[in-house]
Design a protein that fits this description.
Length: 72
């Protein structure tokens, strides 16, 4: 499997909501901290978080072209 360099492995718990950052400005990458709200207001963009609702415990890989550094 070819993964981008900034891909992050997430272990998700069943029946919990996860918000994943799409704007790249979150201080809690890969999770959303709502930084997109300021970014949208200042730049006229329309970023929103990506929501994940796993039905069972699972592990996934996530990445975004807007993430410069995930700290992983």
């Amino acid at each position: 499997m070819d993964k981008p360099k900034n891909a992050v492995k997430l272990k998700l718990k069943a029946n919990k909501k996860y918000s994943v950052c799409t704007c790249g400005k979150s201080d809690t990458l890969p999770y959303c901290d709502n930084s997109h709200r300021i970014l949208n207001k200042e730049n006229g963009t329309n970023y929103k978080s990506f929501k994940v609702f796993p039905e069972e415990d699972t592990t996934i890989w996530v990445s975004s072209s807007t993430w410069e550094n995930t700290g992983k």
